[in-house]
Write a structure and sequence with these properties.
about 475 residues, alpha/beta, 2 domains, six-stranded mixed beta sheet, transmembrane
């Protein structure tokens, strides 16, 4: 499979695998370790900026966020992006709060952490650029020399130029993407604003959504109040400018191009550490009413986050990227040597997302598990998955020696996943390959498995008529 990511997360994952192995659990623990470290950095950033109470609030808001919890177990670049983004915010706060003699050190740290974030994910450029803009803004505002900041930013830009070949390769992957209409882009940006503070696991309950959004608004409004305090003005303004300027870049990227979705929530996890620190800022306010309001806001956010995390604990598979795990469990139960997998036509008008099942199953069972896809839309013949057809394809009824799993997969929206949790998954209905196999005397249907999630699936199980029962 082709990926758009820069090499940083692959290098880090390789180093981790040399110590702990290249197994799925080991690589998921790498993500958990990254997010655990990021939580510690968020706590340290808030404590440096605002004190111990705000640090505890920021750490709890960050660690309990379903957005963070979900990314923590991903074998992708995002846990590492979250960690390096947190270190960028930390270096920025240290830069803004340190005496002149130590600023060069923290400018170097900001440059290094920014490059680590950029070489992990392209959106590391967004948080790093926002931090440099913020440093320039605050230094200029209080009359400090901006020359060192400009030099550090120039060094960062030169070093980040090494991403050029990866940018070119990335654009090549998606260069044929169709443009989204303006209304779709606007909806995507509004959804991003919502997703920075909430999650589809929270959206299982609209009450929890209300707590999440209202609490975030109150907590951030109280953070804005700390900008009037000379002790915390610079860090509050600095953090706010970093997040705001980064989001401005995201809005501009969403408007001017369509080959990737700049407003995707997972791309913008760089903002989560900064928003968590700002969310806890008001807890340390001098004004008693402001401090009380901030505590109420943080408590509301925590209640919503804990509700969402509980939903993840109870219905984790529903919020996963793909349905391969329940399917893999079924294959192991039946015996992988006796199973043939066939991917039926996608639902009418829907994208073919069968690769979200095929590739994980290939990784888990290897090429010994035979997997086939439809020869063409509406066809009743198949070919080996990810292989060119041989002749006129193969009759699916002639395949297998024990069981055939006919899988029909489809993308689902966050609201669809919410409905899966609330009311269960609705049947897709058989595709042409399932219908052809069902009409054969050679195969007998035994069960149908419905799997919810962002890639949901209907799995129809057929047993060879001459074989013994399951």
């Amino acid at each position: 499979m082709r990926d758009r990511m820069p090499p940083g997360s692959y290098w880090a994952g390789w180093a981790w695998s040399r110590m702990f192995g290249l197994t799925e659990p080991a690589m998921r623990w790498f993500g958990v370790a990254c997010v655990a470290a990021a939580t510690s950095v968020v706590f340290s950033t808030a404590r440096r900026a605002y004190g111990t109470g705000p640090a505890v609030a920021a750490g709890l808001v960050f660690a309990s966020s379903p957005n963070v919890v979900v990314q923590a177990v991903e074998i992708r670049a995002y846990p590492l992006l979250i960690l390096f983004s947190a270190t960028v915010y930390y270096a920025l706060v240290r830069l803004l709060t340190s005496p002149p003699a130590f600023r060069r050190r923290w400018l170097g740290a900001l440059t290094g952490f920014g490059l680590a974030a950029a070489y992990t994910h392209f959106f590391g450029l967004v948080v790093s650029g926002g931090a440099f803009v913020s440093a320039l803004f605050v230094f200029r505002r209080r009359g400090d020399r901006i020359g060192p900041v400009l030099i550090a930013a120039a060094i960062f830009a030169i070093a980040a130029a090494g991403l050029g070949p990866f940018v070119v390769a990335s654009t090549g992957i998606s260069s044929g993407a169709a443009g989204d209409p303006a209304a779709t882009k606007l909806v995507g940006l509004v959804r991003l604003g919502y997703r920075l503070f909430s999650h589809s696991a929270i959206a299982v309950s609209w009450v929890a959504v209300g707590f999440s959004l209202a609490g975030a608004i109150v907590a951030l409004a109280c953070a804005a109040g700390t900008a009037a305090d000379p002790r915390t003005r610079d860090v509050t303004v600095g953090l706010a400018v970093t997040v705001a300027s980064g989001l401005a870049v995201v809005v501009a990227a969403s408007v001017v191009q369509s080959w990737f979705n700049a407003a995707a929530a997972h791309y913008n996890t760089w903002a989560l550490p900064g928003l968590a620190v700002l969310s806890g800022a008001g807890v340390g306010a001098r004004n008693r009413l402001l401090r009380a309001a901030a505590l109420i806001g943080v408590a509301a956010v925590l209640a919503a986050n804990l509700y969402g995390s509980a939903q993840l604990a109870c219905h984790g598979e529903q919020f996963a990227h793909g349905p391969h795990r329940p399917i893999a469990n079924l294959i192991r139960t039946l015996g992988s040597e006796a199973v043939t997998v066939i991917y039926d036509d996608p639902l009418p008008g829907a994208a073919d997302v069968s690769g979200a099942v095929y590739w994980p199953l290939l990784h888990e069972f290897g090429p010994g598990l035979k997997q086939y896809s439809h020869l063409a839309a509406g066809s009743e013949r198949v070919r080996e998955f990810d292989r060119p057809a041989v002749g006129g394809g193969t009759d699916p009824k002639s395949l297998g020696t024990g069981y055939i799993l006919v899988i029909r997969a489809a993308n689902a929206s966050a609201s669809d996943v919410r409905d899966h949790v609330r009311r269960g998954v609705q049947p897709f209905g058989p595709g042409p390959l399932a219908e052809a196999i069902a009409q054969s005397d050679r195969w007998r249907p035994t069960e149908t498995l419905l799997i919810g999630g962002f890639v949901s699936a209907e799995v129809r199980v057929y047993r060879m008529a001459a074989s013994s029962g399951r």
